[in-house]
Amino acid sequence: MSESVRAAVFGTGSWGTAFGMVLADAGCGVTLWARRAELADAVNSTRTNPDYLPGVELPETLRATAVPAEAARDADFTVLAVPSQTLRANLAAWAPLLAPDTVLVSLMKGVELGTTMRMSEVVEDVAGVGRDRVAVVTGPNLAREIASRMPAAAVVACTDETVARRLQAACHTPYFRPYTNPDVVGCELGGAVKNVIGLAVGIADGMGLGDNAKGSLITRGLAETTRLGLAMGADPLTFAGLAGLGDLVATCSSPLSRNHTFGTNLGRGMTLQETIAVTRQTAEGVKSCESVLDLARRHGVDMPITETVVAIVHEGKPPVVAVKELMSRSAKPERH
Ligand SMILES: NC(=O)C1=CN([C@@H]2O[C@H](COP(=O)(O)OP(=O)(O)OC[C@H]3O[C@@H](n4cnc5c(N)ncnc54)[C@H](O)[C@@H]3O)[C@@H](O)[C@H]2O)C=CC1
Ligand SMILES: O=C(CO)COP(=O)(O)O
After folding, report:
1. Average pLDDT in the chain
2. Is 259 annotated as belonging to a binding site?
3. Is 214 a residue of the active site?
4. What is the DSSP string of 279-305?
5. CATH class of the domain at 6-182
6. Residue nearest to atom 37 of ligand 1 (CA)
């Protein structure tokens, strides 16, 4: 990778910082944009991100700034890593600053409330760029593990294969192995819905329901994700890949997952308010479960696990009652 490739990363949280580190390790010059000047200063002076990745030493070629125009300048890739529900307002402010011909890259795993738009659709809408200039990076990529340079594979999705290959080269390191995939819809849905299933598995874990329940939720969660994907024109094979099964397995088995942990706290009996109070970082599924359910209804797709998560998280249904209802639905063949 040529050192002249420049990347801007908007969002200095755990994944923005870790992915910035991947890009820097792959040979790119990287500027992180941080919302708070103190955090940008801390990154530059200590070569760490004390708030989100304490103890991880960041590469020399990664700088931070709180000035959006400075981050955006001359960027070949403009990476977006803020909470999904804040993307529209943030990007509206950044759009006039973007370098001409920059490729916009979404790291976000959510669906916009109200519009039910995927993040790449929000990017196209707000930045006014064609889909060939928007890419998505997704897969089993728990930020803390990537930041420790533990091995992981990922997916770079873009409808334009040349753009996907450029980005693939820009983020390929000895510990981060990206594959390309033209199925942007499937890759984004895989990432957004796995957070909802991660909440469901966390709730089951918190209730002590065991590993059979976990295996059943992962599998049936993937089945309902695939049903939605098919209705939206995705390639069903995407869901058997890194963006689907791969990310579900990582999320549903790891205590590092914020969604899984959020669910576990609910399953142990914490209230929603108590759970929110102990959650410092973004657990996208908490909001996106509602937009995913909305999307499912718009497409006439049955998503019982997602419906159950919405009922527990937003409608106060006790988990014990929800499990009983989920299990007593009418019997049916597996492939429906
Ligand atoms: N952390 C992880 O392991 C992974 C996260 N993701 C996705 O990446 C996206 C970002 O997540 P993280 O970096 O993990 O979240 P985080 O909670 O660690 O960081 C979020 C960042 O956004 C900033 N932020 C919060 N509200 C904002 C606002 N209103 N305007 C501007 N900036 C704001 C925060 O200051 C912080 O820098 C999410 O969609 C998440 O699902 C994807 C793969 C892995
Ligand atoms: O997307 C992730 C791993 O691929 C991170 O999951 P959480 O957002 O639940 O921490």
Report:
1. 97
2. yes
3. no
4. --S--THHHHHHHHHHHHHHTT---HH
5. alpha beta
6. 13
